Amino acid sequence: MSETGENLKKCILAVDDDVIILTRISSILKSDYDLVTINSGMRALRYLELEKPDLILLDIRMAQMDGIETLRKIREMEGRKDIPVIMLTGVESKDIVLESARLGICDYLLKPFSSVTLLERVNRVLGQEEKKEGRL
Question: With contact defined as beta carbons under 8 Å apart, do 99 and 68 qualify?
């Protein structure tokens, strides 16, 4: 509340089991967005039971529950099916890209990614969402 417009920032949920990646994402996005970082698919699903972020950044290779399975479960959640998702991953598998696309992702960004590229992709996805809302 100390900053004017603080509540107007879009919320991004970043899910990755690598703390270095989460720290990097945070340093890139925290000045423009409210960022929530979570280190597992299971924890992300628990968070999503209570909150609805404007965008999810989701890693594919995670312990216990991978990003594809996490995304399947998100798409099954009432009121969460329409959340835009960008997959952030080191996996360059055509099958995984296709499966992600079938599950309705907005983008697929390979690691290592540049700060500029991440910010551009996030801004593009969230900018498109704002345009859609403006047309309704």
Answer: yes
Question: Which residues, in sequence order, are CB contacts of 47 under 8 Å at separation 6+?
Answer: 13, 36, 38
Domain residue ranges in the chain: 6-114
Give me the chain's average pLDDT, please.
90
Q: Does the pLDDT of residue 27 top 90, yes or no?
A: yes
pLDDT(102) > 90? yes
Q: Residue 124 corresponds to which tokens in the numbers above?
A: 């593009």
Rounded Cα distance between 60 and 3, Å, is 35
CATH number, span 6-114: 3.40.50.2300
pLDDT value at residue 133: 52
d(CA 78, CA 96): 24
Residue type, 55: L
